[in-house]
Hints:
Layout: H1 7-19, H2 22-29, H3 33-47, E1 52-55, E2 58-61, H4 63-90, E3 94-101, H5 109-118, E4 123-130, H6 133-141, E5 147-151, E6 159-163, E7 167-174, E8 194-198, H7 203-215, E9 220-225, H8 228-236, E10 241-245, H9 246-249, E11 257-261, E12 267-268, E13 270-275, H10 282-300
Parallel strand pairs: 3-4, 3-5, 8-9, 8-10
Antiparallel strand pairs: 1-2, 5-13, 6-13, 7-10, 7-11, 7-12
Helix pairs in contact: 1-2, 1-3, 2-3, 5-10
Amino acid sequence: MRSGLNLRHIESFRAVMVAGSVVGAARLLNVTQPGVSRTIGLLELRLGYALFERRGRRLVPTAEAEALHREIEQIYRGIERIGQVAQDIRFQRAGALRVATLPALAQGLVPRAIARFLAPRPQVTVFVQSLPSRQIAELVSTRQFDVGVVELPLSRPAIEIEPLPPARSMAVMPAGHPLARKRVVSIKDLGGERMILLSQHSYVRYLIDDAFSTAGVAAQVVVETPSSSMACALVAAGAGLTLVSSWTAEPFAGPELAVRPLKEVLESRYGIIFPGAQPRMALAAAFAEDLRACMTDGARA
């Protein structure tokens, strides 16, 4: 059997419990004293038991009233918590962000941007996943991710695209390779070298092939892969040399691998994407700012 309680009943009952009297409850709720009395009487009628004992002008809560009040206070604490969370989300102190990034930037740049983003936001959580650019666009367009970092050019409805600063291509080679002694490597220097290049359907591979053709040298391609991170790992394993963007090459530079600028200007183009047709999530916009800041800091280093 339903009790037929509503929010007005609960508010009046709680006010009486907090204030200790009908008069005090009326002041808390900014209503009349008879109105509170009628509401409490109707509540008792619907519950089927007394909530207060009338002792003169005083109302003494029954055991049932005390038990009911404990349950109601739990609900109100939850409501207060919701209000706090709502304010935290407004001021970016809490919430969750879902980030998808292409593998080429998943080893260095994007993790640094996420760490920078989280530093002033201890209550914010991030879910991040590495995926191909086309899949990222699909998931962002359907709002399964809040923001994506992709390779350009990319065409997809229902997303907003903001270009990021382009990244120049770098030559990656074993530290002991003769070309590692050069400060800058040219395409001609790579003629005859065993090359690990991106798959032929990629825009960057088109630029690389065109650069080799313009230089009049042939690329001896021994491995093709859609992943520039995999290309760097293959260099580390001794399979050959590769050309990747500076952001991809950066995390691999060290005692085992040398990273050298390429004389020719070959640039990888990246972008950050958001779901279209709706207001942008504040946390997503803040992450985009931190990503750009990391790219600016990296360019100055």
